[in-house]
Write a structure and sequence with these properties.
The chain is an all-beta fold. A hairpin with a 6-residue loop joins strand 4 and strand 5.
Length: 120
């Protein structure tokens, strides 16, 4: 399993970024996919997931601002982030788990290297 994130960067409050995760090495449409983030000195936190069958879930802190999508043909996972706030700053990670989704990072065995998002 290989996951590669891209799209992070520095953005002003109120701005937007689009993160992408490209997957390889596994049967993508059999996996639940998720985004987590980790701010300096804090634990990794759930942001959003996209289940195999299409169910999505968002953390309350990003609901209405972030949108997750996946393209099974291209094996990509995308996170559109709008109305960004300084509290959104952190390293954003793509994660994969066979079958069911979870909001717990410990349930995901596969991770990308992360992409940094700074809102300032």
């Amino acid at each position: 399993v290989q996951l590669v994130e891209s799209g992070g960067g520095l953005v002003q409050p109120g701005g937007s970024l689009r993160l992408s995760c490209t997957a390889s090495g596994f049967t993508y449409n059999s996996y639940a996919m998720a985004w987590f983030r980790q701010a300096p000195g804090k634990e990794r936190e759930f942001i959003s997931y996209f289940a195999r069958m299409g169910t999505t879930k968002y953390a309350d802190s990003v609901k209405g601002r972030f949108t997750i999508s996946r393209d099974n043909a291209e094996k990509t996972l995308t996170l559109q982030m709008n109305s960004l706030k300084p509290d959104d700053t952190g390293m954003y990670y793509c994660a994969a788990r066979e079958t069911l989704c979870s909001v717990m990072s410990s349930q995901y065995p596969a991770w990308g290297q992360g992409t940094q998002v700074t809102v300032s």
